[in-house]
Amino acid sequence: LPLGHGAQMMKPVVEGRMLQALQLKPGDSLLEVGTGSGYISACLGALARDVVSIEQVPELAASARARLDATGLGNNVRIEVADALQYDCGERLFDAVCVTAAVATVPARFLQWLRPGGRLFVVRGQGPAMEAVRMIRAEAVNAAATESLFETGLAYLHGAEPVPQFQF
Length: 168
Hints:
Blueprint: E1 2-4, E2 7-8, H1 12-22, E3 29-33, H2 39-47, E4 50-55, H3 58-71, E5 77-81, E6 94-103, H4 108-112, E7 114-124, E8 130-137, E9 144-152
């Protein structure tokens, strides 16, 4: 479903599989990349202790916040307007990170947001068939075990598109 500003919602089956893959616990602290409509933010807020959700488009962030406030969901969800590829969470580390748009390659920054043992869900690669993966951060900041979950297709996170290849 298109949300405007080039953003679109994930298919419900992908949303469900993402939530399952994150293996969230009630005490988890989570970072969501791509607030969109706020639907996933509300789901994450119901499953985790607290959620920081970053959205690059101010209008989408504002409408998601309004939806969360109107429904009473998301009291533990903080929405920030930020570019994920530049986002700095300071010293804070998260138990899980979910990225609701695709990336051609996973930026090292995404793993740096995680505590050791933290879980990252992201869709990577080039369409039409991209790979959804769960990455578990090792003790070393940029090291992770990667588990391939399923194939899917998503719109790219702004700035994380594949580099154009020469074609005849």
